[in-house]
Amino acid sequence: MPIVAPSILAADFGNLARDVEMINKSEAEWFHLDVMDGVFVPNISYGMPVIKAIDDLTDKILDVHLMIVQPERYIKDFKEVGADVLTVHYEACTHLHRTIQAIKDEGMKAGVALNPHTPVHVLEDVIRDIDLLLIMSVNPGFGGQKFIQHTYEKLTQASLLIEQKNADTLIEIDGGVSPGNAAQLVQLGADVLVAGNAVFAAQNPLEVISGLKNS
Ligand code: DX5
Ligand code: ZN
């Protein structure tokens, strides 16, 4: 069964505690938290204080997705506000290996995200060092976008790479995930499904989460 990680970007920020409570009661195991700096991506979301507030309201895993330049500057800060999994973008790291080690040295799981244009094979030499490979299935920056079909091919390549290198890496799919494509994603090797709009814009979010879980 996949891990389901609802993306708080699509929550109602005026009623954040209520939405967190809803996820607490759901079958979702992780919270997906999108940090955007207006430089790496053309949008600004939220940062440490919001993550800290969510950490105070839940015992679930906090999966923090950094869409920021020079993420190595903030590794300690995200640990301090409760991040359990910290994911940086391949495209934002000049010394990716060092950044991965620094995340693990802080006691967090280390993830690396790939933009839609970045091929999977660039991670060949670090795949055994990372706990999570996040494949972006939309261009990062906004929720509610259309799933890019080429992602299926990348997912197959990622599964193959992990198998070839005998790595212990989870594959996460982020962007445009819905009950309509979840089963195929899981079948091709997705371990973690991020879902923003599919969950929070639904009439019955708990039912959608349960559906994703049983994909
Ligand atoms: C996009 C973010 C996603 C986003 C997903 O830049 O990384 O996590 O919240 O939202 P949906 O599921 O609505 O595409
Ligand atoms: Zn994300």
From TrEMBL:
<comment type="similarity">
    <text>Belongs to the ribulose-phosphate 3-epimerase family.</text>
</comment>
<feature type="active site" description="Proton acceptor">
    <location>
        <position position="34"/>
    </location>
</feature>
<dbReference type="GO" id="GO:0046872">
    <property type="term" value="F:metal ion binding"/>
</dbReference>
<keyword id="KW-0464">Manganese</keyword>
<dbReference type="InterPro" id="IPR013785">
    <property type="entry name" value="Aldolase_TIM"/>
</dbReference>
<dbReference type="GO" id="GO:0006098">
    <property type="term" value="P:pentose-phosphate shunt"/>
</dbReference>
<feature type="binding site">
    <location>
        <position position="65"/>
    </location>
    <ligand>
        <name>a divalent metal cation</name>
    </ligand>
</feature>
<keyword id="KW-0119">Carbohydrate metabolism</keyword>
<keyword id="KW-0479">Metal-binding</keyword>
<dbReference type="InterPro" id="IPR011060">
    <property type="entry name" value="RibuloseP-bd_barrel"/>
</dbReference>
<dbReference type="GO" id="GO:0005737">
    <property type="term" value="C:cytoplasm"/>
</dbReference>
<feature type="binding site">
    <location>
        <position position="176"/>
    </location>
    <ligand>
        <name>substrate</name>
    </ligand>
</feature>
<feature type="binding site">
    <location>
        <position position="34"/>
    </location>
    <ligand>
        <name>a divalent metal cation</name>
    </ligand>
</feature>
<dbReference type="InterPro" id="IPR026019">
    <property type="entry name" value="Ribul_P_3_epim"/>
</dbReference>
<feature type="binding site">
    <location>
        <begin position="174"/>
        <end position="176"/>
    </location>
    <ligand>
        <name>substrate</name>
    </ligand>
</feature>
<dbReference type="Pfam" id="PF00834">
    <property type="entry name" value="Ribul_P_3_epim"/>
</dbReference>
<protein>
    <recommendedName>
        <fullName>Ribulose-phosphate 3-epimerase</fullName>
        <ecNumber>5.1.3.1</ecNumber>
    </recommendedName>
</protein>
<feature type="binding site">
    <location>
        <position position="7"/>
    </location>
    <ligand>
        <name>substrate</name>
    </ligand>
</feature>
<feature type="binding site">
    <location>
        <position position="32"/>
    </location>
    <ligand>
        <name>a divalent metal cation</name>
    </ligand>
</feature>
<keyword id="KW-0170">Cobalt</keyword>
<keyword id="KW-0413">Isomerase</keyword>
<dbReference type="GO" id="GO:0019323">
    <property type="term" value="P:pentose catabolic process"/>
</dbReference>
<feature type="binding site">
    <location>
        <position position="65"/>
    </location>
    <ligand>
        <name>substrate</name>
    </ligand>
</feature>
<dbReference type="GO" id="GO:0004750">
    <property type="term" value="F:D-ribulose-phosphate 3-epimerase activity"/>
</dbReference>
<feature type="binding site">
    <location>
        <position position="174"/>
    </location>
    <ligand>
        <name>a divalent metal cation</name>
    </ligand>
</feature>
<keyword id="KW-0862">Zinc</keyword>
<comment type="function">
    <text>Catalyzes the reversible epimerization of D-ribulose 5-phosphate to D-xylulose 5-phosphate.</text>
</comment>
<feature type="binding site">
    <location>
        <begin position="141"/>
        <end position="144"/>
    </location>
    <ligand>
        <name>substrate</name>
    </ligand>
</feature>
<comment type="pathway">
    <text>Carbohydrate degradation.</text>
</comment>
<dbReference type="InterPro" id="IPR000056">
    <property type="entry name" value="Ribul_P_3_epim-like"/>
</dbReference>
<feature type="active site" description="Proton donor">
    <location>
        <position position="174"/>
    </location>
</feature>
